[in-house]
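Pasting as-is:
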Amino acid sequence: MAVRLINIEHGYPKVEEAIKKLKFELSTLRRTKVRTVKVIHGYGSSGTGGSIRQATRRYLSEQQQSGRIKAFCAGESFGPFEATGRKMLELDPGLRKDPDWDRQNDGITIVLLR
């Protein structure tokens, strides 16, 4: 199954706007039976990891703990040398073909929906 993209950094929104868009897009994709999503949140212009990136991962962690998503993997861990990257591949073997596989891209997060 193809990976769907959600770009929440486009237009440089405030954190609240970006998370609102993420919630809406994930909800829509879940209803349309999409299971694999790549969230583009950017790394942040400060060079230390932006607010949108941090808020996205906090939100996804909450969603995973509550059982609303199956799993997520930070882009920097999305590869064969990280346990979370290998776990994502077990859950969706097609992710090996993703162009960000094993590229340590801090500006993305991969999400597997239920």
